[in-house]
Amino acid sequence: MSQLELSEQEQFRRKALEELRKAGIDPYPAAEFVTNVSTTEIKENFKPEKKKYQDVSIAGRIMNRRIMGNASFAEIQDDKGRIQIYLRRDDICPGDDKTLYNHVFKKFLDIGDFIGVKGFVFITQTGEITIHAKELTVLSKCLRPLPIVKEKDGKIYDGVTDAEFRYRQRYVDLIVNPKVKQVFVKRTRIIDSLREFFNSRGYLEVETPILQPIPGGAAARPFITHHNALDIPLYLRIADELYLKKLIVGGFDGVYEFSKDFRNEGMDRMHNPEFTVMEIYVAYKDYMWMMDFTEEMIEKVALDINGTTKIKYGNEEIDFKRPFARKTMLDTIKEYTDVDITGMDEKQLREVCDTLGIETDETMGKGKLIEQIFDEKCEPHLIQPTFIMDYPVEMSPLCKKHRKDPELTERFELIVNGKELCNAYSELNDPIDQKERFLEQLKLSEKGDDEAMFIDQDFLRALEYGMPPTAGLGVGIDRLTMLLTNQNSIRDVILFPTMRPEK
RNA sequence: GAUUCUGUAGCUCAGCUGGUAGAGCACAUCCCUUUUAAGGAUGGGGUCCUGGGUUCGAGACCCAGCAGAAUCACCA
What we know:
By secondary structure, this protein is of the alpha+beta class.
């Protein structure tokens, strides 16, 4: 980029950079700057009578400056927060040479630059905890004007709100919007909390392939790529289910993975092409056990993150206190539509859909039709955490048939705010049954269902060696984060959401 | 993929019925040793998303495109 293409403000900052160098100051010094405190630590603990923090060293980004001649106030921001700095010319320049204040601080530094400050903490006349600077060190020059967001009594002035700007330049969003940073801190805490829950029960975190020759474990359109050395197509995983079950076959009794999955489908406020799912599989358990486990897990995470089981999400108040409601899918459909679809065949179900005003097409089998009825007529009403149990067998090709009714499966989903949050099975471990279910999927695929599952021969081979009865659970981490941080879009809980490239 | 809305200074936004491009913050210059959204004064800064069209004249109107957001469809 030539000098001519730079904005006026960028040119001024580049000029200041050169002036710093001329003054013998390296604008990008290599040496460590040792700090001994953070902004928030001072603000939380400083008491004027205690004589604490009389020799502090702190580093951060300049976010505000008020120059009053030979004394100035600045605010610097570190990882934790902000604090005000008081700079007096004769304090940071004790000798005759006043360059550091008159030129370096006043002329060559800007909002956005990183500085290090050594000094003591005091309270100003207006009552603000402030660091009185004795030394000032330039740590890094900022060459672009940083948007200035101001706040007074909770009111934001000149906020950076443009969604495109925020997502594309997330680094700026994080600098100027502290609430955004908090969301991502919470996201990590959620994952920490889950991990702690699993580890404390002795389950093992594992890593399974992202590049898979057959994308298994879910019904979805995959991304495809090519491996040059092997000269084969590879798919980005859509789920890690089959690999984790192979590990149960291999003798691990409890395994889990935080899995970045990829689906080549539509994008909207609930869907990003890459997203995170936690899947866990525990041997010798069933879906009833897993329901208790899920309840306990969700309640714990809510408490760990927000200190309460109650959350506000949009206009709803949701309570994650145990126990959650438990209903079968067929009962729920009866409850919301007054239709008992128990034992109906495909033709009858199609008629029910017509009466209820649900669109159908020829590629839809029995399972898909029931799913449509549930998704349209029931799911949106389920705001409080609700387990929906016993899905039709056609909808769940990897799930064990119900112990009491072969038309159903031992499956539950946890619905919160009208959306699926968790999905769990008594895992199908009968290799003959599994093969038949895969063949059913193949028929659906031939009928035109482009989401039907592929047949994974290696998975069938593993099951033939024997898999103990196993309960499995998947949790949408992005959606869980959205709920616990009250965010309306998945893009607000993913640091760098997928965007069309610029220009 | 469909529909609607949006795109003007570094940021947030005005811009009338089509008639010389505006404000606040930021930036620059000068003054000021306890200010806080904010010290005071003065000043500079624009590919009005892009390309066509209508018009004497387009930031505004029309067409096409690009990018984003919301809603819907599919999916978690």
